[in-house]
Amino acid sequence: MAEDTSKIPVTTDKAPSALRPRRPLESLRQEIDQLFDDFGIGTWRSPFRSSFFDIEPFRRAKAAFSGMPAVDITETEKSYKVVAELPGMDEKNIEVKIANGMLTIKGEKHEEKEEEKQDYYVRERSFGSFERTLPVPDGVDLDKVDASFKKGVLTVTLPKTAEAQRAEKKIAVKAE
């Protein structure tokens, strides 16, 4: 039986990201908000929550998505593997990119539910996106990076260069 696996293109951007505006404290605030959410406290009680008149008005729309995906990173003799759980996502809505020594996984989710019965009508929509950035280890062959998506699980394989595979050296331990 053939496996249903979709290939996702991985792009490598060698151009500097100097044109992108920087908000160094915004990512810290998002991480702290996520920490409060994870403990069930919610951002409404967080001391770092943004005001109703925040500069970024669409911040509340981002909260509709469940947040950062769970990611497992493993290393084998020949490669590194990054496995991200993206339930309910489609490979068309996922982007994998390597730029400036960082692996970025982006995704966007749109859900719409409509139910009509004799005495009621329900229509729900949820939209959200995520972006997860991880450093790429030294010794990765960037031309051979591969990404696949199957049953809600994204697997990015970062093969090691031949030099990185041979770099291991066993050192004897001497008793004194």
Describe the structure.
The relative contact order is 0.20. The chain is mainly beta. It is built from three helices and nine strands. The N and C termini lie far apart (59 Å). The chain is elongated and about 80 Å long. About 14% of the residues have low confidence. The strands form two sheets. Strands 1-8-9-4-3 form a five-stranded antiparallel beta sheet, with no helix packed on it. Strands 2-5-6-7 form a four-stranded mixed beta sheet, with no helix packed on it. The chain is 14% helix and 38% strand.
List the SSEs and their pairings.
Elements: E1 6-8, E2 10-13, H1 24-38, H2 59-62, E3 71-75, E4 79-85, E5 94-99, E6 102-116, E7 121-135, E8 146-150, E9 153-159, H3 162-166
Parallel strand pairs: 2-5
Antiparallel strand pairs: 1-8, 3-4, 4-9, 5-6, 6-7, 8-9
* Number of strand elements: 9
| Strand/helix succession | EEHHEEEEEEEH
Helix count equals: 3
Q: What overall geometry do the principal axes of the alpha carbons give?
A: elongated
Physical arrangement of strands within the biggest beta sheet: 1-8-9-4-3
How many angstroms separate the termini? 59 Å
What structural category do the secondary elements indicate?
mainly beta
Radius of gyration: 21 Å
Briefly say what this structure is.
This protein is 14% helix and 38% strand. It is mostly beta strands and 176 residues long. The protein has a single domain (6-163), classed as Immunoglobulin-like (Sandwich), CATH 2.60.40.790.
